[in-house]
Amino acid sequence: MSNNIWRSWHTMKEESRRREELRAAALTGHLSDAQKQEFIQVAVTDPSISAELEELQSTMTRLDAADIKRSEEPVPSDLEARIINARTKDGPSAPERSGAGSASRARLAGTEDLEAAAHTLTAAFKDYPWTRHVIPTQEYELRLHRLQHLHLTQAEQHGIVVVTGAIEGVLALLPPDPPTPAPEVLEQILALHGDRIDRLTQTEGSPGAWRLETLGVRPESQGQGLATALLFFGLSAAATHGAQRVELETSDPRNVRLYERHGFTVTSSTEPLSAPPVWHMENRLPSSI
């Protein structure tokens, strides 16, 4: 074996080993800041690592749903193979899972996707505590759909909107200080919230922080790793636009656990007597990729 061939083989072996280490750390939620940056760098140049992680995360989600306990000890080196083998035997076949996982299922949305995306978010947030609190019950779903469409339009024009291939999941991010919506759009938002407009509050974001405006998956498509696909794609896209910090608010404790697995931490929380609880979270992204 020539020196050049040996060096190439050795480099490939080291890269493969490092990918396994990154996937294992991401799967357990124990990525350091340096590993987050390295993972995003790898994902941008080779999106298949996100697809591989999504496959593992999807299986772990299924285990959680079945209330199967897991150890917090380091991930065994053969865990990936065992999980993939088990999923292949008792889970949907590859074609039924839309083929290539998160890398192919998550993509940037265009204007033509916004109507379907609004329908998906309407289904996802139909029973969400905060939307139930701030939107009148009369024609609730129609109001919710219209509000989602208005906010998605703003995000698609000035930020980032990500959807899965068949638009079963949607994510929207806005950069710091986006333009104020046009007066006619603000009038529609006020009218749709009706007499509950005074319940609509939002904490002032940190200077320079991007904001994760929404993340929703249709109820029948939940538990398949789509949220993971959307988050990895969305955060990577934000990082390429210079985002160093992403903030969000959620009123569902299950979402808190989801976001914590993807690098977010709780910065504060409020539990008012007359409104749903709100957790404020942030994710400090690498400064460059």
Automatic annotation (TrEMBL):
Residues 86-108, 267-289 are annotated as: Disordered. It comes from the Bacteria. Gene3D superfamilies: 3.40.630.30. Residues 104-286 form the N-acetyltransferase domain. Residues 91-108 have a biased composition (Low complexity). PANTHER family: GNAT FAMILY ACETYLTRANSFERASE (PTHR42791), N-ACETYLTRANSFERASE DOMAIN-CONTAINING PROTEIN (PTHR42791:SF1). This is Ribosomal protein S18 acetylase RimI-like enzyme.
